[in-house]
Hints:
By secondary structure, the chain is mostly helical. 67% of the residues lie in helices and 0% in strands. It folds into two domains: 15-82, no CATH class; 96-131 and 139-170, no CATH class. The protein has helices at 15-20, 39-49, 51-60, 63-82, 88-126, 140-148, 150-159, 161-170. The chain is rod-shaped and about 85 Å long. 12% of the residues are buried. Bound molecules: zinc ion.
Amino acid sequence: MKESGRKQGAAPPCAACKLLRRRCAQDCVFAPYFPADEPQKFANVHKVFGASNVNKMLQELPVHQRGDAVSSMVYEANARVRDPVYGCVGAISSLQQQIDALQTQLAMAQAEVVHLRVRQTASFSHHGFGPGSPSNSGSPSSKLMGSQAKPIFDMDMVVDHASFGESMWSC
Ligand SMILES: [Zn+2]
């Protein structure tokens, strides 16, 4: 703010140069990615990677890749500040755990679907409908759902009758 009066002083120094207390040259490598109004963005990157390393990495990259590299470094730096031990690996492994848990749930739900279909097929043949149904591999599920889902559904409705009541009669 107090650096006015220089020739190029019209624009404020970028967040990096401001933090490093140096003059922000016109071709400053940081300026396009660390605007003055986001000081925290550079502060974390500087703390984790060091300004000269960031400078070096950006210089080694073609200009069109620098924006992505900066986003990546900012993400990693913020994660490292939040979690000094694991950094973004912490986020990755917690997401991986969620994936594992959800895949387990999915497998259990799919097993239950298979189980219900087998039960439906059993009651299907028990009632004597559609003699050749097991060999009809087209799409048995929709046919079964349509005609023979009732017995199981009725049982469920008895169990949570209370929660069903309102929505059943409101329409
Ligand atoms: Zn600068």
